[in-house]
Design a protein that fits this description.
Layout: H1 13-36, H2 44-75, H3 80-108, H4 119-142, H5 145-170, H6 176-205
Helix pairs in contact: 1-2, 1-3, 1-4, 2-3, 3-6, 4-5, 4-6, 5-6
Amino acid sequence: MFKFLRGRPGGMDSIDRTVGEMLIDCRHTFDLAMAALEAGEDISGLAADVRATDERINAAEEQVRRQLIVHVAVHGGDDVGAVLADLLVVKKLERIGDQHKNILDLAEEGVRLGGAADHEEFEELRREVSEMFATTAAIVADADGDRALALGQRAAVMRSDLDGRIRELIHTDLPGSHAVPRVLLLRYLKRIVANLAGVAMTVRDGIERTERDPSGEDVTDD
């Protein structure tokens, strides 16, 4: 257990801090993008904040990549497992940021959930996924393998539930203007959950098994 963070090589503590900051920014853009689906007509302020914060997430990923190149150049390949795990984590966080921009795109196309019959269902999903960011940040900070496993198991259940909701919408008699945006949103949420679980399981297991959930199912997702 804790293979990724056991005996962290010297000089890599700053990467852990950067990952923590990326998770804070990712939660921020998630909450803003979901808020845009509840907002009025003018969401320009929310959109500007999401895109500016996402640029910071992308810049942080590039910063980590540069740090790791320097680390390998100085220390050689002895820490290759930790380096690959770091690269995987920041890539997953960058992917999460992309999904938040996809959610924002729905809002900019005029999709709104406020007042809809399924509004509370999506609000509960928003609360749960937002809390997963805080849980993942705590797992990274504390190298809590048991909590990482629990999050991975919860994520597997959530993905299964989201798949079920997607299937229901595919076969609904409701108009496409209702079903299509919701199918897309649920798909984006599924990808966010999968990548958060991937970050947590990388903390627990390092580069090994990080593309599979605790049941062994492949969860590789863009």
